Amino acid sequence: MIDAALLPLQHRLLRPPAQALVARGISADQVTLAGFALGALALPALAFGAWGLALVLIVANRLADGLDGAVARLTGPTDRGAFLDIAFDFAFYALVPLGFALADPGANALPAALLIASFIGTGSSFLAFAAIAAKRGEVAPAYPSKGIAYLGGLTEGAETIALFLAMCLVPTAFPLLAGLFAAACTLTTVLRWWWGWRAFAPL
Q1: Tens digits of per-residue pLDDT, 58-102?
Q2: Where are the membrane-spanning stretches (predicted)?
Q3: Rounded distance between C-alpha atoms, residue 165 and residue 182, angstroms
Q4: Strand, coil or helix: what is 30?
């Protein structure tokens, strides 16, 4: 919901470190791969209840997710970079609730399953819209730097990361937070279905 508003600030803040990475010959794809590796390590950290470490790894993953785009804007974006960025993002989003489910299956497994199912709804509607929009040559003016046609919604990247950080800070609140966010994701999915229904209606 607020991703588009945050983009200009994100670009300004990340440009200097991105320039330093480019000067050292580090590519956007390398940043993407390193960021996903750090994010994946949050899974065992969460499973073993290392909440502080998991929080740090989640933040590191998100910083890398912003940095790879900043590096790409300096060196030239690629289709492979756009593919890796979105594919790894959705995988990472599923790993976090899975980690909480492993940490306490009795309390967290069902809320985690609901949250992951709702992520499938937001992710599939997002990618389906992007695929058809690309076929029609359409772009999203609010997200000019994205490598694909980007469809916003009630629950976007900023809200999801805020949720994950809140879960790490108050892990006992995971069931409640997961349930509330799953409901918000479901609403986002339904809205995207409606937008797609209207946007792609036969002429």
Answers
A1: 999 999 999 999 999 999 889 899 899 999 999 999 999 999 999
A2: 36-60, 81-103, 109-135, 147-167, 173-195
A3: 16
A4: helix
- How far is C-alpha 171 from the geometric centre of its chain's CA atoms? 20
3-state secondary structure of 157: helix
- How does DSSP classify residue 141? T
- For the chain, where are the alpha helices, taking DSSP H only? 3-23, 28-47, 51-75, 79-103, 105-135, 157-169, 174-199
Rounded CA-CA distance 175/141 in Å is: 36
Q: Identify whether the C-beta of residue 71 lies closer than 8 Å to the C-beta of residue 100.
A: no
Report the C-alpha gap between 62 and 55 in whole angstroms.
11
Least Cα distance to 162 among 78, 55, 74, 64 occurs for 55
DSSP state of 179: H
What's the CA gap between 32 and 189, in Å, rounded?
A: 27
